Structures are given as structure tokens and as C-alpha cells.
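Q: We require from you a single protein entry containing the residue sequence and its fold in C-alpha cell form, and nothing else.
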Amino acid sequence: MTPFKAVLVALATATVTAAHAADCPRKDALGTSRVLTVDPKAYPRVGLKSFPQTLPLADKEVVLTFDDGPFPATTSKVLAALASECVKATFFLIGRNAAANPAMVKKIAAEGHSIGHHTWSHQPLDRIGQTRALEEIDRGIAADEAALRGTETRVPSTPFFRFPGFASTPALLDTLQSRGIAVFGTDLWASDWNPMTPDQQLQLLTARLEGQGKGIILLHDPKAQTARMLPAFLQYLKRNGYKVVHLVASQTAQNSSHDR
């Protein structure tokens, strides 16, 4: 590793070990292994499905992310499964869903999960032009922040964003980077936008994880099959020696974003 790269990693990743005994009532729970602090200046775009770089994870470390919520009927079940195993995740919210379900947004945050952003209405941003795309992004962030904190602002308290369908453009990527917002792709997914049974989804996801060995995982909390599959997947992670890493934004990134 070059000295420059070492500096970037240091900026991007300050880690702490989760206090399992103090924070988790179940001694045999999977738990959250560590917290990874992400600085968008060092990691502006991550996820090998879309970009050449991903987060600095060790073998058998995974990051759990959920898109398209909140949707109370299923998001509540996802939260219950995560709480049962004392696991923290990142939720990329659709703004109109957040506006319709502010209590669920607050619940996600109150349970210690990170909240990222996923536009207002999940339009493919590469097809609607730069101006409309930025309006979709900013309206979504404002709705998420209003649901979470009671104040509309296009400045995200956690500067994490994921493009619907990973449909970015170079201009949009540059704009988000200039605003200090990290763009998340993913390293693997469960294809849970396709109808399948929870067992089929579990087999598909675990096979992909075994092949890759680590990474950012994309799931969708509004999907009933995902909510039903999740407890078994968390048990699989525990049985097979995987560790869950929780993402938070660096204080520097939060302050920089708030200054814009």
C-alpha cells in the first residue's frame, strides 16, 4: 500500500468493536462486529457491481443494506429480525415512502441503523435529464430528513446515496461527489425483485456470498420474501463465521455536508 493510499484508508475507516455484552441481550446473537466510518472524500463511490472500488472489508465481512422502504408491513419484520440478532444495517429510503411513514423512519434510526437516500420516487435518473434527476435526488433527501428530524433540507445528515437501479450518469456522480455525498452501489444482491420463495432466495444469496466471500449486500425491505428469508440468512452468517459491519458517516463528512 502506498503512503497516499494509507492516508485515504485512515481517513475513510475509523473502526470500533461493538460491545456485545453491554448492547445485546442475547449472548449467542450474531451481533455487529464493528463500525466502519466512511468518509465520502476517500470513498466517493463504492460497490463492485458499478464501480472499480468497494469498502475495505476483510474476508467474511458483510455490510447489510436495504432499499426502497420504509414499508411498515415488511420493514417492521426486517427490523425485528435485525434486532433479534443485534445487527445494524443501512436503509436507503425512497422519499415518498418516508413522507408517508415518518414514524417508521424514526424507528429505523432509533434502533441504531443508518439512513441513506434513494430519490423521491425511484425514477431511473439516467433517462430524465440532469435537472429533473437532481430534483428527484433533492426532493427525496428533503423528505427523508423531514421524516427523521422534522425539517426539510436537501443536505443529508448521513451523506449516503444509492441510484435507483444503479442508473447513474457521469454528471450526476460528479455533482454528488462535489456535495460530499458517497454513492453506494453493491457487491452482491439477492435478486429479490424477482418473485421466489424465501428458501430459493436464501439459496441464491448464500451461493453468491460463498463465491465472493465478503461485501456490501443489497436487499429490499418492502419485499415480503426478503422479510421472511432474513432470520434464516442471519443464522447462516453466524453459523458460517461471517461478521456484520455497520456503516456510519464520518463527522468530517457530516460537517462538510451541513456546510453546503
Notes: Residues 30 and 238 are 5 Å apart (CA to CA).
